[in-house]
Amino acid sequence: MEFLGFLDKTEIEIIKMVEEAGYITTENSKLCLLGENYVGFFNRKRKEIIICTSNAKKREGYTILRKNSKEVFEKTALHIKKAIRHEAVHVAQECNNGNLLEIDSKLSMNSSKINALNGSIRISGEEEKERQAYILEDRPRLIKNKLRRYCLY
User: Per the confidence metrics, is the pTM higher than 0.85?
Assistant: First the structure.
Protein backbone atom coordinates (compact mmCIF):
# COMPACT_ATOMS: atom_id res chain seq x y z
CA MET A 1 0.00 0.00 0.00
CA GLU A 2 1.58 3.18 -1.25
CA PHE A 3 0.19 5.44 1.50
CA LEU A 4 2.41 3.73 4.10
CA GLY A 5 5.40 5.58 2.62
CA PHE A 6 3.85 8.89 3.69
CA LEU A 7 3.32 7.97 7.35
CA ASP A 8 5.17 8.63 10.57
CA LYS A 9 5.55 6.23 13.48
CA THR A 10 2.41 7.62 15.14
CA GLU A 11 0.09 6.83 12.23
CA ILE A 12 1.62 3.36 11.86
CA GLU A 13 0.79 2.76 15.54
CA ILE A 14 -2.78 3.99 14.95
CA ILE A 15 -3.19 1.59 12.00
CA LYS A 16 -1.91 -1.30 14.13
CA MET A 17 -4.42 -0.42 16.85
CA VAL A 18 -7.24 -0.21 14.29
CA GLU A 19 -6.25 -3.64 12.94
CA GLU A 20 -6.05 -5.05 16.46
CA ALA A 21 -9.65 -3.84 16.90
CA GLY A 22 -10.67 -5.97 13.89
CA TYR A 23 -10.68 -3.36 11.11
CA ILE A 24 -8.74 -3.37 7.85
CA THR A 25 -7.11 -0.57 5.89
CA THR A 26 -7.34 -0.46 2.09
CA GLU A 27 -6.34 2.02 -0.58
CA ASN A 28 -7.95 3.76 -3.57
CA SER A 29 -11.33 1.99 -3.63
CA LYS A 30 -14.21 3.07 -5.89
CA LEU A 31 -15.42 5.42 -3.13
CA CYS A 32 -12.38 7.59 -3.87
CA LEU A 33 -13.92 8.38 -7.24
CA LEU A 34 -16.65 10.44 -5.51
CA GLY A 35 -14.32 13.43 -5.70
CA GLU A 36 -10.69 14.44 -5.58
CA ASN A 37 -11.21 16.26 -2.27
CA TYR A 38 -11.84 12.99 -0.42
CA VAL A 39 -8.73 11.42 1.05
CA GLY A 40 -10.34 8.88 3.38
CA PHE A 41 -13.52 6.95 4.09
CA PHE A 42 -14.82 4.69 6.81
CA ASN A 43 -16.95 1.74 5.76
CA ARG A 44 -18.74 0.64 8.92
CA LYS A 45 -20.30 -2.48 7.39
CA ARG A 46 -17.02 -3.80 5.99
CA LYS A 47 -15.04 -2.67 9.06
CA GLU A 48 -12.67 -0.85 6.75
CA ILE A 49 -10.72 2.39 6.50
CA ILE A 50 -10.10 3.47 2.91
CA ILE A 51 -7.24 5.83 2.11
CA CYS A 52 -7.44 7.66 -1.23
CA THR A 53 -3.73 8.07 -1.87
CA SER A 54 -4.29 9.01 -5.51
CA ASN A 55 -6.58 11.89 -4.47
CA ALA A 56 -4.09 13.18 -1.88
CA LYS A 57 -1.36 13.13 -4.52
CA LYS A 58 -3.54 14.93 -7.10
CA ARG A 59 -4.51 17.63 -4.60
CA GLU A 60 -0.89 18.55 -4.00
CA GLY A 61 0.45 17.96 -7.50
CA TYR A 62 2.55 15.01 -6.37
CA THR A 63 3.93 13.33 -9.48
CA ILE A 64 6.97 11.23 -10.26
CA LEU A 65 8.67 14.40 -11.52
CA ARG A 66 7.87 16.31 -8.33
CA LYS A 67 8.39 13.38 -5.96
CA ASN A 68 11.67 14.85 -4.76
CA SER A 69 10.03 18.13 -3.74
CA LYS A 70 10.04 18.07 0.06
CA GLU A 71 7.16 20.58 0.27
CA VAL A 72 4.89 18.60 -2.08
CA PHE A 73 5.73 15.36 -0.25
CA GLU A 74 5.03 16.93 3.17
CA LYS A 75 1.65 18.37 2.09
CA THR A 76 0.59 15.06 0.54
CA ALA A 77 1.73 13.20 3.67
CA LEU A 78 -0.23 15.57 5.91
CA HIS A 79 -3.48 14.88 4.00
CA ILE A 80 -2.94 11.13 4.31
CA LYS A 81 -1.98 11.26 8.01
CA LYS A 82 -5.03 13.37 8.87
CA ALA A 83 -7.27 11.00 6.91
CA ILE A 84 -5.95 8.01 8.86
CA ARG A 85 -6.43 9.80 12.17
CA HIS A 86 -9.91 11.03 11.19
CA GLU A 87 -11.11 7.58 10.14
CA ALA A 88 -9.54 6.03 13.27
CA VAL A 89 -11.81 8.29 15.34
CA HIS A 90 -14.77 6.70 13.53
CA VAL A 91 -13.39 3.27 14.47
CA ALA A 92 -13.26 4.33 18.13
CA GLN A 93 -16.84 5.64 17.85
CA GLU A 94 -17.94 2.27 16.49
CA CYS A 95 -16.16 0.51 19.34
CA ASN A 96 -18.20 2.77 21.64
CA ASN A 97 -21.42 1.18 20.34
CA GLY A 98 -21.67 3.79 17.59
CA ASN A 99 -21.73 6.67 20.08
CA LEU A 100 -19.68 9.83 20.39
CA LEU A 101 -16.49 9.57 22.43
CA GLU A 102 -16.02 11.33 25.73
CA ILE A 103 -13.78 14.32 25.04
CA ASP A 104 -13.09 17.62 26.76
CA SER A 105 -15.89 20.04 25.85
CA LYS A 106 -13.29 22.82 25.49
CA LEU A 107 -11.83 21.12 22.40
CA SER A 108 -13.05 22.74 19.22
CA MET A 109 -12.71 22.31 15.49
CA ASN A 110 -10.50 24.66 13.49
CA SER A 111 -12.82 26.87 11.42
CA SER A 112 -10.76 26.14 8.28
CA LYS A 113 -12.33 22.66 8.28
CA ILE A 114 -15.94 23.80 7.76
CA ASN A 115 -16.02 22.90 4.04
CA ALA A 116 -14.50 19.49 4.72
CA LEU A 117 -17.00 18.95 7.55
CA ASN A 118 -19.93 19.78 5.28
CA GLY A 119 -18.66 17.37 2.61
CA SER A 120 -18.31 14.60 5.18
CA ILE A 121 -21.81 15.24 6.55
CA ARG A 122 -23.27 14.98 3.02
CA ILE A 123 -21.81 11.47 2.75
CA SER A 124 -22.27 10.12 6.28
CA GLY A 125 -25.26 12.12 7.50
CA GLU A 126 -23.65 12.13 10.97
CA GLU A 127 -22.84 15.74 11.86
CA GLU A 128 -21.67 15.28 15.46
CA LYS A 129 -19.54 12.22 14.71
CA GLU A 130 -17.88 14.05 11.82
CA ARG A 131 -17.35 17.17 13.92
CA GLN A 132 -15.71 15.05 16.62
CA ALA A 133 -13.45 13.35 14.07
CA TYR A 134 -12.34 16.73 12.71
CA ILE A 135 -11.67 17.98 16.25
CA LEU A 136 -9.55 14.94 17.10
CA GLU A 137 -7.68 14.42 13.80
CA ASP A 138 -5.03 16.92 14.88
CA ARG A 139 -4.54 15.15 18.23
CA PRO A 140 -2.96 11.73 17.50
CA ARG A 141 -2.10 10.95 21.14
CA LEU A 142 -5.72 11.48 22.11
CA ILE A 143 -6.85 9.24 19.24
CA LYS A 144 -4.55 6.46 20.46
CA ASN A 145 -5.97 6.89 23.98
CA LYS A 146 -9.53 6.62 22.64
CA LEU A 147 -8.70 3.52 20.58
CA ARG A 148 -7.14 1.93 23.67
CA ARG A 149 -10.10 2.85 25.85
CA TYR A 150 -12.96 1.93 23.54
CA CYS A 151 -11.51 -0.79 21.29
CA LEU A 152 -8.64 -2.54 23.06
CA TYR A 153 -9.69 -2.61 26.73
Answer: yes
